[in-house]
Fold these 3 entries.
Entry 1:
Amino acid sequence: MLSLSIAARFLRKSPVQSILIAAGIAVGIGVQVFLGSLITSLQASLVNQTIGNSPQVVVLAEQDGQPIMYTSQLEQAMKAQSEITTVVPTRTYSAIFRSGSESAPLQLTGGALDQLDTIYDISGRLVAGKAALGSGEVIVGKEFADQFGLKPGDTASFVLPSGEPADLRISGVFDFGSAAANSATAFVGGDQAAEVLGYSADEYSAIDAQVADVFSSVQVADGLKAEPALDGLKVTEWQADNADLLSALQSQSSSSYMIQFFVLVAVALGIASTLAISAVQKTRQIGILKAMGMKDRQSGRIFLWQALILGVSGAAVGVAGGLALIALFTFLGRNSDSLFPITPQIGFVVISFVVGVLVAVASSLVPSRRTSKLDPIEVIQGG
Amino acid sequence: MAETLVSAEGIGKTYGTVVKTVALHEVSFELEAGEFASIIGQSGSGKSTMLNLIGLLDRPTTGRVVLDGHDTTAASRKQRAALRNDFIGFVFQFHYLLPEFSVLENVLMPGRISGAAGSELVARAEENLALLGLEGLEKKNANDLSGGQKQRVAIARALMNRPALVLADEPTGNLDTENTKAVYRLFRQINEELGTAFVIVTHDRGVAQQTDRILEISDGALLQDVRNEYLAPASR
């Protein structure tokens, strides 16, 4: 490959120029890899914080407050949806906590702890006490406990929906990472909730489900609505209730794409101008090579090869730099609660690399075409 | 009868479209294989234009150039490039060596352009360098040589594909007397040993008289075309 060896030699002969172009590509691709992974991880973190530990698809009775019969047909219909990973029937009621003159409303969700854990991860998020939902036990949120000075072992007094009082013993305190959730939610045993609500053993207030890809919740909900086993029931999913979050995520993605696009344009212009200068600098050499019989396409390929070498090496360094930045970001934020972990997106890294190389090659089209059109007589007559 | 290598049939060159400048009027001549000829004329007389036309570096405005039986009138850029690579070696006033490559790599270049590779190619390049007294300089960078050495490397490069014709445009224009003599001795030696035809453009009548045939150009016209047979071999 004569064009390749000439391209490599031209690059080696001007090391500073070559390193500068490769560095330009590296910076562009490094920014791509870091920014892309940062935005994706930020969004994943936001989504996870918002809905990661809550049901993403919920089956409810058509009328509020009515129980659902959790039949085996209903269970099978839900588990038949391939995207659904977890199905947990729950019983939820509202109660008012009273402590002296103070009071606060609380939503109590009842269910089996091991099942509730599959969605809420109560055991994993426990900050005090133990994870237990035996008879008369309740697990409350951190902010709620702090506000009323409650700790495991204390007894909390509630006024039930029926107006009757009830005392529950606090077995543990969880932290969902959200003050709102920690203040307004608590968990009790499934039987305790059934007793309060007056439900039989197979009656529940909702069937909660989680899906593998959170953004598939709309399709899953549509699929469930079409199931005969769910006739007379309604299906809700998180996206319908979080339009603001979705719009924020979309805006974030758009602005990220814009930044990435303009970074690439800047990189492309940088490479194109430097390669164009290089093509002018090498006019004499190209002219004499053509006089000796080098064909137009063969000479045009010299700058394509140069771009490819610079693109591959620059993009490789850029990917390494981007990953190093991610590692540094993760290292610096290892002890911080406010920073979220950035996960390198392998697909995105590969795309960034390929885009970097393609941008470099595309930037070489003008100098390559110019070289290809050069007439040797222009150089010979020019002396 | 010797084989015709180049046939220039009424070739002319006019530059410009609005203001037209005629650089070469309709000139016809034939060059046989193995000839050792010169084109002589004043600066601006059209001698380099004529060399560029028969070297397929430029296209004539009128007439046609037939190279080794190939009519080049309708030849594409690609075909003309291939013909240059196969049949012609160029030596210019400026050596035009590629500063990015070593002496050996520069000499190898026409061979590599033709797609050849391997030890046979390198052996031929080394043979050329030896013929021109450049042994031991193979790995040196072309920039590290003296003016005379550079021009000899350019000659070695021109001979790489064993062309039937070498076109030399003021090849000693930048050399001192000693190197000038050496270059013409080499041209003659190569012509005799390899049977390569030479056309040397010069404005120096003394140089022209060392060749076997002189084509004299004046104001773009072929003034005379004389066989230099009256010169005794010893005086060459």
Entry 2:
Amino acid sequence: MPAPPTDGTRDDGRDVLVQPASEALLASERDGPVVEGDLVAATAVAADTDRAKRKLGLGAKLAMGWMGLMIVLAVFAPLLPVGDPNETITLDPPCPKVQTLGRTLEVCEITGLGPFADDGTAPGYLLGGDGNGRSMLARLVYGTQSSLAVATGAVLFGMLIGGSLGLIAGYFGGRVDTILTGFFNVLLSIPAIILALALVAFLSQQSAKGGQASGLPRVVILILAIGVVAVPLLGRITRASALQWSQREFVLAAKAQGAKHARIMVREVLPNVLPAMFSIALLGIAVAIVAEGALAILGVGVQPPTASWGNIIAIDRSFLTSGSPHVVIEPAILIFLTVLSLNYLGDVVRARFDVREAGI
Amino acid sequence: MTDARFAAEYEGPLLEVSDVKTYFETDRGLVRSVDGVSFTLERGKTIGIVGESGCGKTVLSRSIMGLLPRRGLVRQGSIRFEGNELIHLTPKEMRAYWGSQLAMIFQDPMTSLNPVMKIGKQITESIRQHLDVDKDFAYELAENLLRSVRIPEPARRLREYPHQLSGGMRQRVCIAVALAAGPRLLFADEPTTALDVTVQAQVLDLMAQQQSERFMAMVLITHDLGVVAGRADEIAVMYAGRIVEKAPTSVLFRDMKMPYTQALLSSIPKLADESHVRLATIPGRPPDLVNPPKGCKFAPRCAYVQDRCKEEEPPLTPSTSPGHEFRCWFPVGTPEGEAALERNKQKGLRATEALVAADTVET
């Protein structure tokens, strides 16, 4: 029996998938006479799996919803009615009563108050307050902004540099490929967090030396540092995919029409490579968010008072064990759900475009 | 514009290929894919290059075009296009010829169009590469091109992706892309092999029509003698990187001298055959191009083989008809050849048995 062709029999699908299908059909022809019913059944199966692939599951829908929400929070943070993230909130009396050293005190600052806190919630501030009595809600919303900015910026930087190098390596092959792949491997061999740490330290020092009062903003430094770490990852994926596409006859056909290398790379190869890059980029953003958090805990993340998910955890991490765990738990939940969503979406993109994981 | 396009009319033949050698350096040694091929092609004429897979047809065409990857490549000989030597040109210099002078159609229209680019874009890119026209005019030209390759509803097709077209339609688009800049010489590398038999003739006719309209020369590469039979002015049969027989088409089919040509022809299934007849094949495989056999390269598979064939390689010898050359010590249809075949029949050589079996089926 011929194996049912699983890809590419739909007539309006992405053509990335057409080649395997034609091979499968050829194979089935070679294997012997095909009973018409079998072929119909096979086509039906293919159509079904296709539809399944195209239809988004519940997980994917939730993931898209969550990411949509995060993007809205990040973009419209200043317009949202969440208040100032740097203002220490003082409640109007009567204030909540707090038991301290056997005495009952009236506390009008929301420091450490919140859901799950030993001292109870802060009325009117749903997510409570942080260690400095600032509104957690406001800090988390503004934290979303800087965390997503750093992560997305870093991955875009990685895509630009790594993607270009990978495209060049995969297209030209040979010595160019050997050198660039070697470069990627060297970068990969340095532990990511140590490389990022060193880069942050180096870039801060260099930009401070520049003489300007502030030098490069810390966010830009973080984007560059995490971006450099992302370069080899995106570079290798792009290279693997570009290598494969550059062997196709349409590339030779373009050359035979007198197209220049740059044109062939950008117009012919790149559009075919983008799905693979995009899928890895989504996973990359997730990793970059976690990386920003790790750098924050090491003290080189986004600099306070600017909030980021990482530094909210980092600054008040002692509160986790001293009666106000919400200060740490809330940003941790945001990171968790965001990373989970991005991984989900990366998988969806990969399944859609049939991107192979090989080469990571 | 380069001088290539507006060069004063050159009087000689359009393409003169002489003693072209194309070797590849590999770990196993030097692969002699094309080993001393010469032919000339006049304007507006067609030469058919015929041979099995792996005999160097594709490498020859890409070598003439200068499209081979340069790593480990050895190219020698002379390729003169309108009198200009091409073999030493760098890819950058070749760009003056690619598309506008020399163009190529590939075997598989599935892979020779970019899957993520609309048809219109692929054709106009090619047009705008060579002609200084704006986008709208390029699209108009593209629409006319599609119409001339007989694609119905060209305006709609321009907005479609390759996967929305059938195989034959795609190959027509490939032809349109290749013709976009008005080349003088078109290489067609097995242009119909990937197509349905019903579409093959249409595509070949279309190419012939375009060729005569544009007074374009063509190098038609195929493994199927049937494809070139009615369409080429001259046929060169290649084996193991060499031309083993070359003749004007009518002469070749009337008076073939090389046992390999005969074997190729008899391996085409015939309609007159009864059903379930065993297909005639050529026993064995083309030789290893790293260590080709001493003597005649076809000797190990030849029905006419004699001791001399295994020792000495026959030179390209002119036949009685003008323009007919072949490489054989015991040519088909000559007393020496018949005697050689008779001797082999008695000895019961494997290759001869296959040929004899094919003969008995035919009669």
Entry 3:
Amino acid sequence: MKCGVVVFPGSNCDHDVYHVLKHVLEQEVTFLWHGEEDLQGCELIVLPGGFSYGDYLRSGAIAALSPVMAGVRRHAEAGGLVLGICNGFQILMESGLLKGALLKNRRMRFECRDVHLRVERDDLPFTRGYRRGDVLRIPVANADGNFQETPATLDALEAEERVVFRYTDATGRRIDEADAANVTGSARAIAGITNRRGNVLGLMPHPERCAEELLGNADGLPLLASTVGAVGTLVGAAAS
Amino acid sequence: MKAKVTVFPRREVLDPQGKTIHQALQRIGFDGVTAVRAGKCFDVELATNDAAAAREVLDAMCRKLLANTVVEDYAFELLPEEGAS
């Protein structure tokens, strides 16, 4: 699958995603500059983590207005795959492609640590490599990761099963806003959501930072592998 | 024409910055503070001198960029020109 990783001024996880897609999953990958609308025929668009435009105004607010996002919007509306990680998730929300907004973390800290996530959907292109209820260990690294929405929209997200990942503890139990394992303080412990059509995914944790056994944790690899349609390849590689 | 735009977290939304500042004020002895909300303020200068047109464009820029209306409210006021009679 031809993959495009968007580079905004201040992106800093772009090369990590590029590395996993190119060298671990052996896909065709190109960088896409934020100033160009043309997505060069890429089938998967990744908005990487970082501090686009220095987080000026609000995280992701300025990047959401850049030329490339017009192309990303058309791609998403046509059913193309879009994955936003961390700052990329913030940009998807600011652009209106996903619901929600992110506030400062509950403890007013930059939270950089491994967290546990429970998989809530295993039928999306992004999550077919997992089973519903799987508990993943995956790092977060953000200051504005506190997902909030109006109660009515939160109820709608739940009813439409658009919550894809939730913060949990090692046992996978359901936790609330105040639980210590919900390091951001996110409403209903939401860590990642999708759009109604299921072709746009945003999440705060970083799957690209835990996608190689060599680095001690590959819990994030099934997400990227499933997204590029390489789940079978991955299973084959793991078995050999 | 000049304008002042203020953006604040909505009343029903958690405000971790305001809460932290409130606690810090109490810690240094300002016991009488009962609540703090932290927001942003923008001084905007516009080419127009038409108040109605200015309000319209300010409202549009707040909705499109300056505020995230999922979690923030905004307000603006037009400022009298300095030296105006």
